[in-house]
Amino acid sequence: MTIGPIGQCEICINRFYNVKGVKCEAFTENIPDEIYFMEHFHTIPFKGDNGVLFKLDKDSLYKDYLPAIIKSLKSLGMNIEA
Question: pLDDT 10s per residue in the chain (82 long)?
Fold first, then answer.
């Protein structure tokens, strides 16, 4: 089985899930496509984020894969602290 790419939202401590899908403390209604599809790394402020930025969730569902995910995100240009 192949799983699609894991983006920044899936390993961010500010994300949560509800019946409408993935939400976050920064964007409680809708996560902008630019953030969700990684056209904008949310370590940099984005309009409407209320000052809430990406913060690594070291207990993420994907915690066993964090080293590889972090390496991949860094290779794309995201400044992420492990």
Answer: 444 567 788 889 998 887 777 789 999 888 899 998 888 999 999 999 999 999 999 888 888 888 888 888 888 888 877 6
Beta bridge partners of 82: none
Q: Can you give the residue ranges of every domain in the chain?
A: 8-75
- Residue 40's alpha-carbon distances to 7, 31, 37, 57, 64, in angstroms, are 11, 12, 8, 19, 25
Angle at 31 between CA 59 and CA 52, to 5 degrees: 60
The predicted model scores a pTM of: 0.76
Q: Distance (Å, rounded) from C-alpha 37 to C-alpha 29?
A: 16
